Amino acid sequence: MAFRKKFTPKRKFCRFCADKNLPIDYKRPDILRDYVTERGKIIARRITGTCAKHQRSLTTEIKRARQMALLFYTTVHSTEVKKKTV
Ligand SMILES: [Zn+2]
């Protein structure tokens, strides 16, 4: 029992369930970027705490955003994008 007390993970919650007005949209890379690592990988649900339903739509929107060049696939691409916009 004692060792159980030590492991009390912070209660994670789905950001999109908590805020119904928060859109999961490829046109909002500022939101999507929170769910992608700096190397462009989509962060797992168990880490972000996003629910299954929203994680699913999040994944499709991130992939869509990548195609629209709003998000990057890898770090190499991100530097390319920066060069273009500057
Ligand atoms: Zn949710």
Give the N-to-C terminal Cα separation: 57 Å
Low-confidence stretches: none
Radius of gyration over C-alpha positions, nearest whole angstrom:
16 Å
Order of helices and strands: HHHHHH
Alpha plus pi helix count: 6
Which secondary-structure class do the elements indicate? Answer: mainly alpha
Give the DSSP E fraction (strand runs of 2 or more residues): under 5%
The molecules bound to the chains, other than polymers, are: zinc ion
- What's the main sheet like? none
Helix content: 40-55%
Report mean pLDDT, rounded to a whole number. Answer: 82
Number of beta-strand segments: 0
How would you describe the shape?
A: globular
Descriptive account of the structure:
51% of the residues lie in helices and 0% in strands. The chain is mostly helical and 86 residues long. The radius of gyration is 16 Å and the shape is globular. The termini are far apart. The model has no long low-confidence stretch (mean pLDDT 82). Bound molecules: zinc ion. Zinc ion binds at residues 14, 16-17, 51, 53-54.
